[in-house]
């Protein structure tokens, strides 16, 4: 790889051992992908996970004196003050989350603890080169904003934040951003939930960059968020295109270049129904709780739930996971108090895939997000997956259809 003097100095350790290690790994990654050079980034997002390997690396880099040149936003772990006040979690949990917080703080990260930074806190412009990890974030910034990032891991995004560079390969290059699968959507796409299910069709769509055709003219940010999140739950997708909607797919020629699609896939209502049947526990049963916000819910979704509940008290607890800034707005606008009185909690900076939820072990919840159901399963928490309206009704009545 051809490195600039600055990059060579980093590699030789002139900027400290932490930066040296980060650059060493990045050059190795670059070589393995055939990159010819490193290019500067302007933004980053690190999928902090507050799990052993994540903490090990963050502390190692911090102890080596690494500092982020580009301060990345970070994913949620769980919110210490919120759960302390509720008296949930044990000392071991607190220690781990506190150490994660301290390590990322020392590294100079922007401690947003939110997995949807592309909606309001870390929004790239068209063509901007960035390093984003997190399943819904990478496809959103590539596909919807037309920015450029490979599907970084938490570790490679952290290294990029430290050096300020990424190896130039993959989606950073024009020729690799073309679609190769035409996905004709015949299913009725009426709500953000349908985009969750469309994203879960990864098995049928197959490997590559899908170009969706037949989607409605207007698609909400929540639907686009859900599509990316679930494409990376059912498969591994760096980006997608939506014909006549996303910026690099204003025509078939733009979306596919001069090539024909490798394959054409049709997604029908029946496909969505089948996928739901595959991934959800069977309905018509009692539930113990409801959980939403994987990925984090927007203020509009909080408002939607509040309107839907219309003052009705919940029979079962409801957890709505949001960013700290959405929580702040919910506080100011009175949603936090009014929903709390009815049995719904608006929780900031927290992910369902965290040990803090161990008290839900053995219980059955409802959620509208397949990803929310997927990760907690390994912690012994199961879910019935239904559209948001059905889930809210289930929390009110205690039973899901
Ligand atoms: Fe976000 Fe955690 Fe879900 S990071 S997408 S809330 S698994």
Give structural notes.
By secondary structure, the protein is an alpha/beta fold. It has 3 domains: 5-174, Aconitase, domain 3 (2-Layer Sandwich), CATH 3.30.499; 178-275, no CATH class; 280-400, Aconitase, domain 3, CATH 3.30.499.10. It is 41% helix and 15% strand. The chain has 18 helices and 16 strands. A 5-stranded parallel β-sheet has the order 13-12-11-14-15. The termini are far apart. Bound molecules: FE3-S4 cluster. FE3-S4 cluster binds next to strand 11.
Task: Please give a quick description of this structure.
The chain is of the alpha/beta class and 401 residues long. The protein has 18 helices and 16 strands. The strands form five sheets. Strands 13-12-11-14-15 form a five-stranded parallel sheet.
For the termini, the CA-CA separation is 58 Å
Globular, elongated, flat, extended or rod-shaped: what is the shape?
A: globular
What value does the average pLDDT take? 98
**Cofactors and ligands present?**
FE3-S4 cluster
What proportion strand?
A: 15-25%
* Annotation, overall tally of beta strands: 16
Quaternary status of these chains? single chain
Radius of gyration: 21 Å
Q: What is the CATH superfamily of the largest domain? A: Aconitase, domain 3
| Top CATH class of the largest domain | Alpha Beta
The major pleated sheet works out as:
5 strands, parallel
Spatial strand arrangement across the major sheet:
13-12-11-14-15
Class by alpha and beta content: alpha/beta
Helix content: 40-55%
Output the CATH topology of the largest domain: Aconitase, domain 3
């Amino acid at each position: 790889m051809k490195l600039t003097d600055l990059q060579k100095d980093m590699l030789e350790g002139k900027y400290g051992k932490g930066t040296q290690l980060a650059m060493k790994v990045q050059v190795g990654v670059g070589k393995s992908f055939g990159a010819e050079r490193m290019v500067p980034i302007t933004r980053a997002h690190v999928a902090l996970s507050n799990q052993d390997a994540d903490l090990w690396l963050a502390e190692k880099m911090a102890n080596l004196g690494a500092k982020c040149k580009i301060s990345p936003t970070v994913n949620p772990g769980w919110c210490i003050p919120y759960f302390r006040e509720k008296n949930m979690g044990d000392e071991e949990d607190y220690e781990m989350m506190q150490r994660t917080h301290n390590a990322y703080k020392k590294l100079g990260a922007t401690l947003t603890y939110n997995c949807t930074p592309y909606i309001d806190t870390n929004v790239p412009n068209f063509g901007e080169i960035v390093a984003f990890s997190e399943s819904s974030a990478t496809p959103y910034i590539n596909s919807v904003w037309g920015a450029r990032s490979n599907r970084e891991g938490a570790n490679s995004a952290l290294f990029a934040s430290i050096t300020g560079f990424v190896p130039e390969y993959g989606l950073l290059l024009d020729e690799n951003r073309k679609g190769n699968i035409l996905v004709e959507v015949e299913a009725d796409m009426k709500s953000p939930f349908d985009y969750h299910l469309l994203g879960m069709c990864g098995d049928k769509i197959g490997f590559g960059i899908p170009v969706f055709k037949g989607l409605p003219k207007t698609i909400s940010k929540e639907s686009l968020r859900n599509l990316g999140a679930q494409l990376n739950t059912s498969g591994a997708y760096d980006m997608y295109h939506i014909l006549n909607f996303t910026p690099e797919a204003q025509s078939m020629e733009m979306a596919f270049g001069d090539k024909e699609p490798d394959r054409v896939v049709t997604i029908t209502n029946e496909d969505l129904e089948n996928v739901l049947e595959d991934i959800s526990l069977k309905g018509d049963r009692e539930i113990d709780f409801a959980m939403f916000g994987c990925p984090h819910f927007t203020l509009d979704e909080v408002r939607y739930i509040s309107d839907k509940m219309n003052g009705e008290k919940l029979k079962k607890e409801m957890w709505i996971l949001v960013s700290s800034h959405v929580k702040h707005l919910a506080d100011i606008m009175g949603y936090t108090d009014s929903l709390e009185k009815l049995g719904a909690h608006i929780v900031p900076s927290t992910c369902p895939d965290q040990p803090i939820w161990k008290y839900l072990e053995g219980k059955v919840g409802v959620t509208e997000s397949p990803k929310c159901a997927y990760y907690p399963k390994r912690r012994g928490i199961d879910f019935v997956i239904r559209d948001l309206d059905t889930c809210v009704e289930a929390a009110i009545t205690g039973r899901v259809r």
